[in-house]
Structures are given as C-alpha cells and as structure tokens.
Amino acid sequence: MSISENNMLKFKLASRLSKKEDSIVKVKGRPVGGHHLTVIAGPCAIENEYQMFSTARAVKASGATLLRGGAYKPRTSPYSFQGLEEEGLKLLKAAGELVDLPTVSEVISTETFDTVEKYVDVLQIGARNMQNFPLLKRAGKSKKPILLKRGMSATIEEFLMAAEYIISEGNPNIILCERGIRTFETFTRNTLDLSAVLAVRELSHLPIIVDPSHATGKHNMIQPLAKAAVITGAHGLMIEVHYQPEIALCDGPQSLKPEVFDHLMDEINRLHDFTTQSLKIKTK
Ligand code: PEP
Ligand code: MN
Questions:
Q1: I need a surface site. Which of 84, 185, 198, 244 has the fewest CB within 10 A?
Q2: 180 Cβ partners below 8 Å, 6+ apart?
Q3: Could you tell me the distance, in angstroms and rounded to a whole number, from the CA of residue 150 to the centre of ligand 1?
Q4: 154 lines ligand 1 (CB under 6 A)
Q5: Is position 275 within any domain?
Q6: What is the reported pTM?
Q7: Residue 21 lies in domain
Q8: Pocket test for ligand 1, best of 106, 159, 190, 249 (most atoms within 8 A of CB)
Q9: In this structure, is residue 146 part of a structural domain?
C-alpha cells in the first residue's frame, strides 16, 4: 500500500483500517455500493417544469436509479444562469415523486443547507466546495446521504480527509465521486482519473462513482468512459441528460440526449453483470 497506515489515520473512519468490508449507503432504502450499480442522471440545472419532468420520465424509463438536477449552481461567471433555487428544488421533488426516483441536488452554502435538505434525498457537495470545511461539518450533522465530489486539484488523501470531516461529525452515509481533475490538458474540460477508483477502493470502504460528464465536457466521450468506469470497479455513474442539449442553460455540450442515454444504460448494465459474474468466479 503506497499510503502508510500512519497516513491513513488522518482519514481513519473513512479508511479500511476502521472497516474492512464495503459500506452500503441506503438512499430511501435503496442500496448504493457493494455490487449494486447506481446511475444518477438528469439535467445539470433545473430550468422549468417541462424540462425537469420530461428528462425525469426519460431517465427513469432507461433504468436510472437516482434523479439529479441543480438548483443552486456554482458558476464560474457571475453572469451565467445561477439556478432556480427553492423553486427548482420543488420541481425536482415533484419530478422525483412522479417517476419514483430519489433525488440529488447540490448545496453550495451553509446558509442554504436547511432548504436543500428539506427537499432532496441526497445532498451533493461539489468539486469547488470539497474543502469548504464549515459546509462539510454541516453535512456531518445531516441525517441524509452526502454525495461528495473530488475537488479539481485534490489528492486522493485530501478527498478522503474531506469525507472524514463529514463522518467525524456523525454522518457515515457518503458516496464519493471522481469527476476529473485539472491538468495541463485543455482538450477535455478536466482529466478523468480512473485510477482514483482503484485507489479509493483500496483505501476506503465508501462507495465511489464516476462522473464522465464533468470530467470531459464532451458528450461523445461519455459512453466509452462510463463503460471504462464500470469495468474499473466504480459503484456507479453520474451522467448529465437533457431532453434537448442544444438549448440547455448549463452544460449542454456534455449532456446526453435521452435516446443516447438509453443505449448507454443497456451497455453498462450488461458490462456490470459481466464484471460481477467474473468477480464471483475469481473469488470462488
Ligand atoms: C454538477 O454536478 O453539476 C457540478 C457542478 O459538478 P462539479 O462540482 O463536479 O463541477
Ligand atoms: Mn453540470
């Protein structure tokens, strides 16, 4: 093991030192982690009722297991669409109930934590806030699962220490997400670090999923990288889907059309069956 046991004490509760077997996080009674494949899908940002409901219906029909949609958007430019805030959360909740899917949305501040917590089933802490320590501490007081995304320049150790903040405050229900890191490469939005899946699985008992949408910024790269993530052993995926990506208010170029997502679900379900079968054979 490249990180010594001494170093692992910095994220002791998140590490395999404190728990050997994989953690299963329950989202409204549904398991995330272990041999279960979780697929979080939906638009980058909630835009209006038609957009949210039609995308929700489509991703549910294709077999997504959680519905996403951003209501508080951490945008690089202050002039970009910032999200519908509480109105958006109401639409997401209604869409989730309509198609019977638990919901995920990002929380960007301690001030708005209570509001997001009231409406959604999983609270996302985004890459830009991975080391927002007051936010991590507040997440640790929540009874709801937290989807923690890797910071764009965070090492694996820093990523797991961010998770440790949440667990040490009392919330062990964490799903980690590799979403690409910033490198010198500019062809893609970020650089997908698939080896992080293997590193996290070695060091930690927490489930880890992969977000090829934010990792690449390119819709044509999502399908192959989603498949690679499943083969690598990710416990799931987060994929942006929009009923009409050309008119999306946020992240259209990296959003899949529903029919493309449908095809991808088919492929990854088959690959996941194959990987779990071959793991069973290996461990016999
Ligand atoms: C998102 O999931 O909408 C998002 C903003 O992701 P990230 O924090 O990974 O950039
Ligand atoms: Mn996005």
A1: 185
A2: 152, 188, 189, 190, 191, 192, 193, 211, 214, 215, 216
A3: 10
A4: no
A5: no
A6: 0.97
A7: 5-263
A8: 106
A9: yes
127 lines ligand 1 (CB under 6 A): yes
Q: For residue 171, give the nearest of 154, 146, 193, 195 by alpha carbon.
A: 146
The b-or-e profile of 246-277 (16+ CB within 10 A means b, else e) is eebbbbbebbbbbebbbebbeebeebbeebee
**Cβ atoms of 179 and 167 closer than 8 Å:** no
Q: For ligand 1, is residue 70 a contact (CB within 6 Å)?
A: yes
Considering only the C-alpha atoms of the chain, give the largest distance between any 2 of them, rounded to a whole number of Å: 57
pLDDT for 2: 63
Tens-place pLDDT, residues 157-173: 999 999 999 999 999 99
CA distance linking residue 182 with residue 10, whole number of Å:
24
Cα 219 to averaged position of ligand 1 atoms, centre (Å):
15
Number of domains in the chain: 1
Residue in the structure block whose two tokens are 């294709």: 62
Q: Which residues contact 198 (CB under 8 A, 6 or more apart)?
A: 232, 233
Please indicate, yes or no, if residue 113 is contained in any of the structural domains: yes
Is any ligand 1 atom within 6 A of the Cβ of residue 68? no
pLDDT digits (tens, 9 = 90+) for 85-109: 999 999 999 999 999 999 999 999 9
Has residue 277 been placed in a domain? no
Nearest ligand, CA 180: 1
Residue 125: beta bridge partners? 148
Residue 240 CA to ligand 2 center (angstroms) comes to 7
CATH of the domain at 252: 3.20.20.70
